[in-house]
Amino acid sequence: MCPALKPEENGISRKGFIRSVLAMGGLAISYGTFGAFIMRYLWPVKKNTKQKIYVSSAKNIRVGETVTFSTPQGETYILTNREVDGKNTFSAYSNRCPHLGCKVIWEHASSRFYCPCHGGVFNEKGVAIAGPPAKANQSLKKCDIEVIDSAIYALSG
Ligand code: FES
Predict the structure, then answer these.
(1) Ligand 1 centroid to residue 146 C-alpha, Å
(2) Is the predicted pLDDT of residue 60 greater than 90, yes or no?
(3) Which of 4, 31, 78, 111 has the fewest beta carbons under 10 Å from its own?
């Protein structure tokens, strides 16, 4: 051992030196953990919390027909089937009018959603085009749909 580095001669015992190193290591771990919590708080990990809910077989919904379904969050949607460019096109919008919450209905002949309470009208994409919802720029909430092997799923959450 190098005589110049003998801890006992500098007034620091070997045990004291080891304790100091352990204490500094403990502090470094503590500050590192605290820093990790701060980073997690400032930049939280975004989880894909969407749930896939089976709604129906595509074969069971002919063009012009609808299916109403509810999500685990308690929201109810109307699944519609429209023919667009010769293909079945499924989409789902909330059955709750954003004006005052009445139930909307799908009118296939007009390709629109209609709210009977105050005459709110929404186009096939849920955009308000007449009545109080149009004045307030309130549209129907959309639910994403996925069709896999003719099974229709709603992506909720
Ligand atoms: S609740 Fe639908 S238009 Fe008023």
Answers:
(1) 29
(2) yes
(3) 4
Give residue 45 CA to ligand 1 midpoint distance, Å. Answer: 38
Check residue 15 and give its pLDDT: 85
Which tens digit of pLDDT belongs to each residue from 19-32? 889 999 999 999 99
- Which residues have CB under 6 Å of ligand 1? 97, 99-100, 102, 115, 117-118, 120, 131-133
What is the tens place of the pLDDT at every residue in 126-154?
999 999 999 999 999 999 999 999 999 99
CA 80 to ligand 1 centroid distance, Å:
20
Q: Residue 30 — left, alpha, or beta (φ > 0 → left; ψ -120 to 50 → alpha)?
A: alpha
Give the Cα-Cα-Cα angle 84, 104, 137 (nearest 5 degrees).
Answer: 85
CATH architecture of 51-156: 3-layer Sandwich (2.102)
